[in-house]
Amino acid sequence: MRVPCFVALLLLVTTSAEAQAPAVTRGAGTPRSLAGRCGSANWVCVAQCIDVTCVDRCLAQGCEKALDALAGCAARSGCGPDDSDCVEKACGKQCERTFEPAPPSPEKELSEPCADGSVGSGTVPKGLVGTWSLEAASVRPEEKAKVVGQEEPQDVKPRPDFERTLVVTPNGCFLLRTKLEDATLGKGSALEVRSWGAFVVNEKEDTVELRTKSGQAVGTVCGKPRVVGLSKGKFQRPLYQYELEGDVLGVTARTASKQTFQFRRQAEEKAK
Questions:
Q1: How does the average pLDDT of the chain come out, rounded?
Q2: Tell me, what's the pLDDT at 35?
Q3: How distant is the alpha carbon of residue 77 from its chain centre?
Q4: Is the Cβ–Cβ distance between 41 and 31 less than 8 Å?
């Protein structure tokens, strides 16, 4: 099968706070977040993203201004670029105003959600099983005007502080992991947003549907461990056309945007 080619490295202008929600979340019910703070509604949105521009749009929904204020505090603190303790002391209160408070009864982390045999679809083609890292993504039509350097932008590569991984297990379970580092969330905060569910493949039509069942955001917020449950989010079930050639997996959204993503299989040792 022919795999989409991704060769150009393009620069994206940061999405504005007034940007629309990503198409994958339109119409989806999500938990309410406190106004002006980053929280579960943002993480549910991020959990349904594949590319970084989608993540930017999710964070723009009531969260971007709070993150900007936190970054401004860190810049004014006089702390060194790697001095997290200094930033925590100087901007601890600002950080607490940036994120939702921890729930009174936090969830336990589910490090291996696909170990639950009831989550998967039952079986998938052997060639799709493994751990895949996002290499590139085509530009959504509404984002093309924000791409600098080319009149006909075709694709972008993930920025250094964004990492997207897709795990597919033999029992038909998928686990999508998005790492949001402190470059995005501010010093002392870093989360891995995870979603999981059934990886439903139609081999006759070369399509795959992601039937998300739940998710979590796991990491640290303001220097403290945090597990945010996303089970109350209403996830959509995106359908993709897939193309597999060796260690390269291309998936194209079956939507008007026809956005395409390219993943590369990780070596077994790196995937662990």
A1: 80
A2: 66
A3: 30
A4: yes
